[in-house]
Write a structure and sequence with these properties.
alpha/beta, Rossmann fold, eight-stranded mixed beta sheet, 30% helix, nucleotide-binding, EC 6.3.3.2, NagB/RpiA_transferase-like
Length: 198
């Protein structure tokens, strides 16, 4: 059974990765600008003063300008740093855009490294995803970092995934460790979903 689910996820991830690869630079820039505006509004709506976010790669919906803007607005932004043990360390974002290459070639912040529990103090988590279904189930890219983080938090804040509009699906293959999200932010909408499992 779980092999079938893993196979279905692998095939879906490959399709989603290919679709993202077809976007033009102009489409990516427009999507990043729209997503940034929606994330700004979400922070205001929730009154968030401290958030976690991720530094987008070229294939992901852009978050970098949003992060810089949030820092300049006085929001404390924690950025993830991957560890070999499957956990995430965190660093406080600055507005200088300095990054280094982390595990798996992902962009990571260069600031002082804080341990995994640093994220327990945020008011909002903004996470990457390959897709999210209408029940709030999130499918990541297969390494499990955010599932572990969300699943281990005693008092998890609202969690929103950043994806493209076409990546909201009716249902997703799921495994026991998969964690739902409370909502998604796309270029065209902020969609609140039901989980609130906290």
């Amino acid at each position: 059974m779980s092999n079938d689910v893993e196979h279905a996820k692998r095939a879906l991830r490959a399709e989603l990765r290919e679709r993202r690869g077809l976007l033009s630079e102009a489409q990516r820039e427009a999507a990043a600008a729209a997503i940034g505006e929606r994330l700004d509004a979400l922070i205001d709506e929730l009154g968030a003063r401290s958030i976690s976010c991720f530094l987008s790669t070229l294939s992901e919906p852009g978050t970098r300008e949003f992060v810089t803007r949030a820092v300049r607005r006085g929001i404390r932004v924690l950025l993830p740093i991957t560890r070999a043990d499957g956990l995430l360390d965190w660093a406080v974002a600055t507005d200088d855009d300095a990054t280094t290459e982390g595990l798996y070639g992902l962009p990571e912040p260069t600031g002082e490294v804080l341990g995994p529990i640093a994220v327990n103090d945020v008011d909002l988590m903004i996470v990457p995803a390959a897709a999210v279904d209408r029940s709030g189930m999130r499918m990541g890219w297969g390494r499990g970092y955010f599932d572990k983080t969300i699943g281990s938090m005693e008092k998890c804040p609202p969690v929103y995934a950043v994806i493209y509009d076409s990546e909201i699906l009716d249902s997703l293959p799921r495994e026991v460790h998969d964690q739902p999200v409370d909502g998604v932010v796309t270029p065209s909408q902020t969609l609140n979903l039901s989980p609130s499992r906290r």
